Model the fold of this input.
Amino acid sequence: MDFSLSPEHDLVREMAYKFGQTQILPGLAERDREAKSDRASLEKMAEAGVLGVSIPAKYGGQDTDYISLGIVCEELERADTSARVVMSVHSGLHCLTLMQWGTEEQKQRWLPDLAKGTKVGAFGLTEPNAGSDAVNIRTRALKDGDSYVLNGEKTWISLSDFADQFLVVAVTDPDAPQKAKGMSAFIVDRNAPGFHSKAIHGKLGVRAGNTGQIFFEDLRVPADCRIGAEGDGFKVAMSALDHGRYTVAAGAVGIITACLDACVKYSHERTVGGEPIGKKQLVQQMIANMVAGREIGRLLYYKVGWMKNVGLRHTRECGLAKWQNCNAAFQAAHDAVEIHGAYGYCDEFPVERYFRNSRGAMIYEGTREIHTLMQAEYELGYRSDRPLDRMLPTWPFEA
Done:
């Protein structure tokens, strides 16, 4: 067993850390306070080559492995969750799913612009009445000649107002004996007639990020924009969630690291009874738990990244990493507020933002309750993963 990272991984971490600290953090407190998001941050990520991470060079990407994508997500979320969310929806849910399920012609058509960041991708599965129960989505795609006509809506869509294209799952056969086999996936262009979006306001966390609803009203999608065969939509969506959950699990480690950064500094500076609070054993206990969460969390997502590299199915391992790392991040942020005392309860220090942001990750990409049940069902033998029709390209990528 080899637990070492390559020099390339170290360079990726350094790049992502510097980008987060110099391009995301400046002005973040004001943007978060005002719930202000804009596309400028996406343009900065494109210029830095961040949006091309883990996309093959033959499509214009950085040609880095999948562990590198996790490292980038960790370091971006160390700055702010809104930056990691961009990687989750653009790179994880959209690009990696297109790499896995798209035809060669579709990859050549879309991936170069996505890798360069001249186009940004997002994902549309969740609906007002279908979250964890994704088989109950209602958005319809009716076949009409050489195209499909979409009607419906999706909600809690990250980058709803900024993304150029969306990987959307819709019902193509409402009479299918199994709901999961009556769904198909499509790439939908935001400029198509019948598309519009609306932002969601008043979020508890990730206030510097754009989240909203997208609507389809008699929107025509060419048949060659369908991803996978008709009826493959549910499998495509579940594959996408494996990629999205991986990025969330890695990002959660970034929140833990950010909590440690803040708490170690504050514990040296704040004194009680003539000594730094870092000398207090209960403070040390909370910091020790953060360290454990960071180290365990890295091992969990590194393993998933390795499994992606070598072409192993990783739904079980990815769910475990997402579940445990997000729980650990929320606990770290909770303790960070405690260590900062009253100052942790206001936005003079960043830990209150970590606390708000970390709560959402226990809901999106599968609630912690769903992941708890999944892990138990795997162990009890009630759930198992069959081989997928299509897998991600293994790394190193073919030239």
